[in-house]
Amino acid sequence: MREIKIEKSFTKRDHDSLRRYLNDIAGYPLLSAEEEVKLARKIQTGDLAALQRLVTSNLRFVVSVAKKYEGQGLPLADLISEGNAGLVKAAERFDESRGFKFISFAVWWIRQSMMMAIGTYKRMIRLPMNQVNDIQDLWRSEMEMEQKLERLPTDEELSEYTGIALDKLKAYQYSPGHAVSLDTGGDDEEKPGLMVFLEDTSIDAPDTVLQSQDLKYSLRELLNQLPDRQRRIIQLSFGLQGNEAMHLEDIADLFDLSKESVRKIKYQALHSLGKEKGAKRLRQYL
């Protein structure tokens, strides 16, 4: 198979080009943990062929991450390009002696590259540069803490870690997103602008998006009332961090507890949540 060159400038925005790219990277086999260790050691000696192989074997993962960030201002192809740049950085910095798989390390660099690109995208409401820098630092810090804590940090933890006042931090978290003019045309100048197509049935309606965001915010605020272990068990039980819900047995193994202990902690957490004022607000989404 022909060699795939990984560049930040990758992508024609055309669907056929993206489809060809996806077909090309599908042919690269995944690596075993032992192969990753060998390649990492070669990369540390300056072996570019080893770097190329470690990167190309994980290109499909970049695509899966990029799809989660669609609709935030950048086309899928651009997100993949940014993620590829992050993947290369991760491959150059991977330390196999720490004992975890490459992709567990690389996901942070991939997400950071995508989030930084989204963060610098043109905004409808211009923000002062110091605020833009604070928001980017906040995103970076949140991902760093998530890696260290193996869970999402609370707003209070983020505030202490970044030195950003709690009220300002919350405002940054929900700062206005990115906008595209309805007069914007397609890649072909002869194509009409977006104004011609007022309704896009492929995406959720604005009110649905707002409700979803409000639900996530309310749920996060409610869960932050729980002790760390109770909150973590609830998140794992119901798949509240983007992962599939875990069985009690798996959670018990993770916490080195008995299945019955996990069941009791889960029950206590749910009982406590039912007494919180925020629980009433969540019932409107049922």
Say how many strands there are: 0
Let me know the average pLDDT.
Answer: 77
What structural class do helix, strand and pairing data support?
A: mainly alpha
What's the SSE pattern? HHHHHHHHHHHHHH
Organism: Pedobacter ginsengisoli
Pfam family, one: Sigma70_r1_2
Protein name: RNA polymerase subunit sigma
Keywords: DNA-binding, Sigma factor, Transcription, Transcription regulation
Please tell me about this protein's structure.
InterPro entries: RNA_pol_sigma-70_dom, RNA_pol_sigma70, RNA_pol_sigma70_r1_2, RNA_pol_sigma70_r2, RNA_pol_sigma70_r3, RNA_pol_sigma70_r4, RNA_pol_sigma_r2, RNA_pol_sigma_r3/r4-like. GO terms for molecular function: DNA binding; sigma factor activity. This is RNA polymerase subunit sigma. With 286 residues, this protein is mainly alpha-helical. It folds into three domains: 16-122, Four Helix Bundle (Hemerythrin (Met), subunit A); 129-174; 206-285, Winged helix-like DNA-binding domain superfamily/Winged helix DNA-binding domain (Arc Repressor Mutant, subunit A), CATH 1.10.10. Helix content is 60%, strand content 0%. It has 14 helices and no strands. It has helices at residues 15-25, 33-43, 48-56, 59-67, 76-93, 102-119, 129-149, 155-162, 166-173, 206-223, 228-238, 248-255, 259-275, 277-282. Helix 2 (33-43) runs antiparallel to helix 3, helix 4 packs across helix 5 and helix 11 (228-238) packs across helix 13 (259-275). It is globular and about 60 Å long. Mean pLDDT is 77; it is low at 1-13.
